[in-house]
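#structure-requests
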Amino acid sequence: MDWQPDAEDGAGDEPAPDFGLLGGQTDGSGSSGRAGSGPAGGGAPGAGSASSGPGGSSGADGTGLAGFGPGGVWESSAPSAAMAVALEAAGGAGWRCDGASQRELIGLVRAAAMVESWAAAAKLGYLREAIRGDDDGLGDSYHGDLPDQWSKSLTHDVALALAMSPISAQNLLQTAHDLGALLPGIGALLEDGTLTYSKARAVNDALELLSEADKAKAEQLIVPAVAGKTHAQVENIAHAAAVTVDPGHAERLREHAERNRARVALRRDRSGAATLSGCDLPPPETLAAHASICARAEVYRDCGAFPQVLTDQLRAMAYLDLMNQVSAEDRIAAGQPDTGLGAPSELAFPAEPEPDDPGPAPAQACGGSDCPCAECDGRCTPPADDPDDYDPDDGGPDGEGPDGDGLSGGGSNGGGPEGEGPGGDGPAGGGPVEHGPDQGRDDGPNRRGPDRPHPEREGPDHSGPPASPWAAPPSSPAPPKLIDLTIPLATLLGPARRPGDSHGFGVLDPKLCRALAALAAASPHTTACVTVTDHSGYAIGHGCLRSGRRKARLPGAPDPPLTALPARLNLTITADRLTALLASDVAPTRPPPAGSAATATASWPTTPRRAAPRAARPSGWALAPPAVRPRPGAPDDPHERGSDDDRDHRPAPEDPAWLGTWTITLPSGLQYSVPLEPVPTRHCDHRRESDAYEPNDTLRHLVQIRDYQCTFPTCSRHARESDFEHATPYDQGGRTCACNAGARSRACHQVKQSPGWRVTQPQPGWHQWTTPSGRTYTQQPHRYPD
C-alpha cells in the first residue's frame, strides 16, 4: 500500500508502514514512551513550588525555563496538572518567556501540546462518566460499567456546554466511548501526549468497521508505531493495520462509504469563492465524470475562445457547465465570464419580451369567473390580446418542504475535524414520530392535543411565502431545491455596498450579491420576499412579492445569463431607510398662501408625491413607497378581504409608517407589489394568532423569518426544515402565536420534550433553553445584514 499525498502536512512521500519491521518507534526525543516516566520516579516536580521568577533559567524543582530544555526534568515527563503549572510559571505574563533560549522555547511548545492532549483525554474521561450517569438501565450492551448507548438529551446538553453542533457532540461522545471501551491503548497515547485528539480520532475512524477482536489486534500494531508521526502518517498506519488483521476491511470500508456516506458538499472557502465537491463517490462513475470534464475542457482549450486561461480553470468551467447543462457551443459563444466562473460581472436579468412580441409568459393563478381559459385546471396564461398586463401566480406551493440539507453539505464528515458543517444537526429523526393534531384553521374547531412534533407539509397551505413571483408553467418538472439568499436591497439599489449571506454557504461580498440576484431572477422557480430590520438587524417587518405587472424592458438591459439559480431571495432593508424613502416621497397637498402661518409651521397635510414607481436606479432596481396608505382598521389588500387566514391583518394605529404595499422594480422591467406587515420580534400583538393547534400560513412564515434557523443555540437547521413548535405546549394552555412559538429541528424538538429540559420565551424571539444540568442558554432572533 502506497502513501497517499497529503497537501496539509507534506507526508505524501513517506513509505508505507511495514509492521514486520516496526519496532519501538521513538517520538523524536529518544524516548519510546512517557507514561509514568516523570522525574524522580514518576513524581510531579515542582507541584506547589514557587517559580524562580519569570524568565528564570534554572530551578531544581523544574518550574524554571531550564526544566523545558534538552535534558530538563519535563523533557521526559508525562503531562499533568503540575506540568501545566510549570508552563504557566515559565511563560510569565503574556507568555513572553523572558530570557528563554530557542531550545527552551521549543521545549515549552512541545510540553504545551502534551498538556493539550492530556486535557483532551480528561475531557473524554469526564464524558464517559456522563455516559455512565445517563444510563437508564435499559441498554442491552456494556463494556464493563460503560453503556454502549446514551440519550439525545445528553448529546444536546454537551453540545450547548461545548458550543458545538449536536452532530459534533455525538461524534465526541462516540470517540470518548470507543477510546475507553474498545481502544484503551490509543486512549493512553492521548493521555500521555503521544497523540493529539485529531490523531486519536483518526485511528478510531479507520478501525470503525472491524470486529471488536480485530480492533484489539490492530491496536497492538498501531500503538508502538505512531509516536512522532504526522496526522496523515498515523491515518495510514491505522488503515494498514486494519487491512493486516482483516484483508477484506478495505473493500467493506469503501462499499460502506459509497452506500451510506456519498454526498455533495458545498462550502465557502476562506477567499470567498466556493468549493463544490462530491465525497465518498463510487470510483467507476467518478472517474468517468472526471474524464468528461477533461474532455470538455479540451474543447474549450482548442477553440481559441479562452486565451491565457489555465487548464485547471478550463476544467473548473467545464465542471460547472456540465452540471448546469450549458452546452459547449453556448459557452464558447458567450466567452469567459468577467468575474469568476458562471458569475456575471454586472446584473444580468432575463430580457423581457417587447410589447409586440409577448413570447412565453409565466403562469398565473386561476382568476375564477374572470379566468380566460375554457377548461381551467387551476393555472392559466395571460390573455393573448393583453400580453403586457397580467398578474403572476398569487397562490400556490413553491415545492419546498423539509427535505434535508441538500446542497448545504453537512453530514458527519463535513466542514471540520469534528464533523461540523453548514447542514446543522443532520437529518432529523431517530425512529417513528407521533404527529400532532390535524391541521386546523383560525375558524376551525379548537383541537387540543399533546404538543408533539409534526412534519411541515408541502403545498399551498404550508409552503411559506404565498407564491413564486417567477412562476413556472405547469408542464415544468418538479421544482428544484431552492438556495437561500439574503441580499441587502441597499446593495442592489446603490450606491451602498453591504455584504449578504447564504444559509449553508456563508458571507457574500457585495459584487457577488448583485451577480446572485441576477441569476436568481433568471430562474422561474425563484421566490422572493422583503424583510425590514431594526438597528440590531432583527426582523421587524416582512412581505412577499405578490401580484406584478410586465412593463417595457429597460433600455440597454443585458442579455439573460447562461445559467439560472433557483433561490429563495430574501431582500433586506432597514426601517430607517424605508422611513427616509417615505419622507422623500411626500409633498404638500397644495402650497399655502405666501406669508400665512402655515408657511412658518409647514404643518399642512401631505400626500404621496406620485403614485407611479420612481425611476429605476442605474443598477436597474427601484423601490417605491405605497401610493396610498391604508386606513387604520381596514385590510391593506383588497384581495384579502374576507380571508380567514388574514382576518387580523390590519394596520394598528401604533404601526410604523412604512407598513403598506410597496412596489419593487426589477432591471428587466417587471414590477411587483410587496405588502409589508410587522414581524413579532420583541413585541407581539397576536394579530396572526391561531385558535387551533396548527399555525396559519402567515404565522408560520413570519416565525421562520424571525428565527431563520432552529432556535437550539448550536443547531443550524434552517427554519423551513424545522417544526413550528410551542414553547408552552398547546394542551397546557400555550398559544399558537409567535410569542409562544419557535423553529425547532425535529431532533431538537424531541430533546426539548425530554425530562429535565425547558424552553421559554421571555420576549418574542428570545428562546431560553434550560438543560438537565441546570444551565440556561439564550438564543436571540436572527440578525440579518443591513
